[in-house]
Design goal:
The protein is of the alpha/beta class. It is built from nine helices and nine strands. Helix 1 packs across helix 7.
Length: 269
């Protein structure tokens, strides 16, 4: 029997279950992978927004990662919400040089507009350390502007090149052209626009970015090249939004990767 793909998800807990660690576990499971976790923060949130947050002490984060990696063979790592420079540097130190795909999803501003503004020290650590450790960084357009320190630049190709110049090996900007949809991949040498999937009006976007980056990590661990993985991740994440859990919550409903995959398998994107 073939051993399952194992993805280590490093991020925050979402009490509503739609995003963060909980969303990553569900996305991994739907993709046929096993999800180990290291919780770096706890949030009080629902589909209307975040009301409180608490950072886990760095020593405990290091202990979680060590416990998992000392016992379980990891095939991919996904790093999500990281709130301070100490934790960012801890992760960069631990993951630097590992021979597995590392997807860094810099959760700074969600598609629904929620802001997880890190302090300047944390942003500097992201720019100077995590960008260089990651195989690919997956900001949305607003997050790419923050990472590039270029709030007035809107062209994804320009933003991707600026972020790449800061040390990122590859940059995948999600929802890169909001008027048309689609993502934008820059692999350090070539630009690859990812065609937009079918548009949606479901209101189910809570956890979309978390699901996308986790799906990407699993696909890379399965052996897909970056362009193929980015293209498939876009399609699956879009289907997860279209077939999301619209009965859960009152505002920004959660995505549903399992339902999205089921509809794709039936030829109904």
């Amino acid at each position: 029997m073939t051993a399952p793909i194992v993805c280590l998800s490093v991020g925050s807990s979402d009490s509503s279950g739609g995003a963060g660690i909980q969303g990553d576990v569900k996305a991994c499971t739907a993709m046929g992978a096993y999800c180990a976790t290291a919780v770096v923060g706890v949030t009080a949130q629902n589909t209307r927004g975040v009301t409180a947050r608490f950072a886990v002490p760095p020593d405990m984060i290091a202990d979680q990662i060590a416990a998992v990696m000392d016992d379980i063979h990891i095939h991919a790592i996904k790093v999500g919400t990281v709130w301070n420079a100490e934790i960012m540097n801890l992760l960069a130190d631990r993951f630097e040089g590992l021979d597995v795909p590392i997807v860094f999803d810099p959760v700074l501003k969600t598609s629904s507009g929620s802001l997880f503004r890190a302090d300047e020290e944390a942003l500097d650590a992201a720019r100077q350390r995590m960008l260089k450790v990651a195989t690919v960084v997956t900001p949305n357009l607003a997050e790419a502007q923050i990472l590039a320190d270029a709030p007035h630049v809107h062209l994804p190709s320009v933003l991707a090149e600026i972020v790449s110049a800061r040390g990122a090996r590859a940059v995948l900007i999600t929802d890169a052209e909001p008027s048309r949809g689609g993502d934008w991949l820059y692999d350090g040498r070539h630009h690859h626009p990812i065609p937009a999937a079918k548009r949606h009006t479901t209101g189910c976007e809570h956890g979309a970015g978390c699901a996308h980056s986790t799906i990407l990590a699993v696909l890379l661990a399965q052996g897909h090249d970056l362009l193929s993985a980015a293209t498939q991740a876009h399609q699956v994440a879009a289907a997860a939004v279209r077939h999301g859990a619209f009965r859960i919550g009152t505002r920004d409903h959660p995505v549903d990767v399992q339902a999205g995959l089921a509809h794709l398998a039936e030829g109904r994107p």
